[in-house]
Every structure is written in C-alpha cells, then in structure tokens.
C-alpha cells in the first residue's frame, strides 16, 4: 500500500495522501530504536520527513530530517544521540505548513512547566483563526505548522497544571488530531472527540506503545491492547497508566478512507482487518457493477485487495496485469517535462502477453483528478486490451478533506466537475463504476442511515463534514468579498 499513488507524479498531484503517522514508547531502554522501527512501518503515512524526540535525565533530545525514515534513523550514531526510556516520533507529509525542517515533528517548546514535545496526525481546521488571535496576543510562532497552535494555546492557558492547560488547549481546537505528547512527567496520547484519525495502544513487556496503526505494533513485536477512544487521553507516568475523558461525549466519526486506502492492509481497526474490508469492497463492487470480462487486474499496490474481492465475487480470473518495479525511486519518475511520461513506464509496465486481446476490469482505490486513471487505461489499450472497464473501490471523491489528508481543491476533483459519463469519457474507459456509499458501509458490516449521523466521516464523498470548518468558511468569505470588490471596482 502506498500513500503516494504509484502512478502519481508531482506535476499531476493525482492522489490523496495521508498527512502523518505517529509512534511513541514509554518505559523501554530501547525507546528511540523502537520508535525508528515503528516509524518505518508507518512510512506509507508520510514520506516527506521524519523526527524522533527522546527524554533522558531531565533533557529532551531531538533528531529531525527530511526524507524517509531509512537513511535518517537507521544509523547507530543517530539512535545513540536519542537516549532515554521515553521517545516519540512522527512521519510527515505536509498539508499545512511549507516543506521545511522547522515544520518537521515532533515540535518542541520550553514552557513554564518544562519541555513539551508534540507529534500530531490530523489537521486543525481552525488553526489559522487561532493563530491570528495568538499572534495578536503576543505569541511568536517558529513554524507554519498547525500543530504549533496547540503549543501556544498550552503556553498561554490560565490553568495551573500542565494537564489542565493541555485540555484547555484541546477544547479550543476543532478538526482532527491524534497526538503523542512528551513532558518531563511522561507521555500523553490522545484522540480528538470524533476519533477522525486512528491511534492504538500496545504493550511490549513493561513498555507502553502508541501508534497510528497496529502494523507498527507488529513490527516492534508489541501486542495490541486497544484503540484509544475518541476524546480519550491516556497518560503514562512513572510506569502507571491512567485514562481521562475530558470532552463532552460525541458520536464518533473516524475517517472511512482509512479503510479504503490510507491504512496498511495488514493493520487491524476495531476488530476488523483492513485487508478483509478492502476485499469486501471489491466484492460489493462486483455485485453492484458487474461486467463481462476476461481478467480482473489491480492497479498496484493499493488496488490489490479490492481486485481480489471483485475477482472472487465475479468468478473472473485475477491476474497481475501491471507489474511494478520496486527499484525506481520517486525522484527518478520525475526527470523533467520532456520525458515525464516515460517515468510511468519506468515504474510500471503492462504485462503485455497477458492483456493482448482481453477484456480487462481494472480495479483501483479512488479517482482524484483522473489523470492517473487516464494513463493506466491508455497503458492497457497500448498493450492490446480489447476492452477496459474501470471499477473504483470508493464512491466518487467530490469534496476536499480538511482533516489531515492532502486533496486538491474541489474544482480539480474529477467527480466534482463531471458526471459518470463525462468521467468515463475523460479516462477513455469502456465503462466506469464506483462502489456506492451504501455499498462501502455494507463492506464494513454497517449500514449508512440517512436519518441518523453516519458512523464515519465520509465527507470527501458526501460533503457531510463532521466539524465546523472555521478557516475554510473564513477564507470563503474573504474570496466572496474579493469577488464583490472586484465587481464593484
Ligand atoms: S473528508 Fe474523507 S479523507 Fe478526510 S477525514 Fe473525512 S473521510 Fe477521511
């Protein structure tokens, strides 16, 4: 599973990308080495930068670097520079804040109460407003990251204890946050009241482990204990664990796209396997949108489980019709405008002998701008496919995400611009179908009831955002004001 779509080039931006992954260890002599391993397992959640902070004998130690975890954190000297039994780390793909080392997390500040390090998966949807207010009151920001807003809210809170200040800060932010915080007293892991982004807890001997996904627990040999509940803070201090729920209880709305694409298929959410759910989605797609065809071919790697489900349900043979080279780095697929189109073939190639003369069902996880699908369909046609039918394991993506997933602005989403016929023409497929929103819930073993709030955030499909979007609404007002001013002038 990749969060950078394998066919994507930066020029296209034709992908949804998870912003971040977090991992924390409290109570192990090998804390920072374990965090490095955990981050490696979460690399798919952010490939732009990584950082680890540890705490030892009253001192915080941090190493942050651009690029992948391997290369920065597979060196003994780096791990030795991060001593202590408590450490937290972060992998990042930025949606908020420019690409710069100062934005790489964990972010760290010296507060009145001592050091404070924070790693954040999600996005604060009123960060710009809070930041403006804080700057007006004298705060000086060091980064352009939305996460730094939390630090300033903690620093300026009028409450006495650090925990109360932290809770006070969280009560002012809206949006999505799964956080791991380190203080001289210990570690706090918490999830926003809607539980939009995932966070789980595990144990490795006496150590407590927090991670964005269970796959990271597996990699370090930890046992999965439970998910952190929406709105829950888990505090690890002096080897003791306690849990508090300081927010008004709300109906949870975890991100449904974690099931479709973001999480690794070998992760478990709740008691369900991501892999199984993806296969169910493929099977549901075959029930809803059957097609006469000779082969089911996944778009690698993220389309594989859904394609397997489609093949098993339909009885159409599953074949690897697109072969992915594992030896081509991301940078190599973007060598320049004149030859950029060749990059696709460097990384992926049609299995020509298999495809020639066949009616193909191509299964992919989503369509964003549509440029990726267009290339893949063309690749199948160039390889001699008699027909190319595209099946998508999510409903049409018609709305942007403001909760920590990088999506193009709405006007650039193919499904926001075109109806099904228009999209089919755009990607040059013989047919195109998406799993229905009801079918997606069915694949999860649930029903989406129109008369009650859905059990997940599905806003990128439905536009039903589970929180207010203060920054978004304000910038829409500014845009409207600018348009009016333009008309008047
Ligand atoms: S808008 Fe879409 S991607 Fe974003 S949290 Fe909601 S379901 Fe997930």
Automatic annotation (TrEMBL):
Task performed by this protein: Catalyzes the formation of phosphoribosylamine from phosphoribosylpyrophosphate (PRPP) and glutamine.
Binding-site residues for Mg(2+), renumbered to this chain: 302, 364-365
Catalytic class of the enzyme: transferase
Cofactor(s) needed for function: [4Fe-4S] cluster; Mg(2+)
Reaction catalyzed: 5-phospho-beta-D-ribosylamine + L-glutamate + diphosphate = 5-phospho-alpha-D-ribose 1-diphosphate + L-glutamine + H2O
Keywords of this entry: 4Fe-4S, Glutamine amidotransferase, Glycosyltransferase, Iron, Iron-sulfur, Magnesium, Metal-binding, Purine biosynthesis, Transferase
Recorded family membership: In the C-terminal section; belongs to the purine/pyrimidine phosphoribosyltransferase family.
InterPro entries registered for this protein in UniProt: GATase_2_dom, Ntn_hydrolases_N, PRTase-like, PRTase_dom, PurF, PurF_N
Functional pathway: Purine metabolism; IMP biosynthesis via de novo pathway; N(1)-(5-phospho-D-ribosyl)glycinamide from 5-phospho-alpha-D-ribose 1-diphosphate: step 1/2
Protein name, UniProt field: Amidophosphoribosyltransferase
Active site, renumbered: 20
The encoding gene: purF
Residues where [4Fe-4S] cluster binds: 255, 401, 457, 460
